[in-house]
Amino acid sequence: MTFSFKILHKSKKSKARVGKIYTPHGIVDTPNFVGVATNGTIKALDNKILEDLGMQLIFCNTYHLMIHPGEDIIAKAGGLHKFINRNLPIITDSGGFQVFSLLYGTVFDELKKKGKKRSDKLVLKIEEEGVLFRSYRDGKKILLTPEKSIQIQKALHSDIIIPLDELPPYYLKEKNLKKSFERTHRWEKRSLDEHIKNKKGQAIYGVIHGGIDKELRKKSCNILQDFPFDGFAIGGSIGKNKKEMVDIVKHTVKYLPEEYPKHLLGIGDSVSFEKIIPLGIDTFDSSYPTKAARHALLFKKEKNIKISKKKYSYIYKPIDERCNCFTCKNYTLAYMHHLFKTRELVFYSLATIHNIFFMINLMKEYREKILKGIF
Amino acid sequence: MTFSFKILHKSKKSKARVGKIYTPHGIVDTPNFVGVATNGTIKALDNKILEDLGMQLIFCNTYHLMIHPGEDIIAKAGGLHKFINRNLPIITDSGGFQVFSLLYGTVFDELKKKGKKRSDKLVLKIEEEGVLFRSYRDGKKILLTPEKSIQIQKALHSDIIIPLDELPPYYLKEKNLKKSFERTHRWEKRSLDEHIKNKKGQAIYGVIHGGIDKELRKKSCNILQDFPFDGFAIGGSIGKNKKEMVDIVKHTVKYLPEEYPKHLLGIGDSVSFEKIIPLGIDTFDSSYPTKAARHALLFKKEKNIKISKKKYSYIYKPIDERCNCFTCKNYTLAYMHHLFKTRELVFYSLATIHNIFFMINLMKEYREKILKGIF
Question: Using CB atoms within 10 A as the burial measure, which of A283, A370, B49, B318 is most buried?
Answer without folding.
Answer: A283
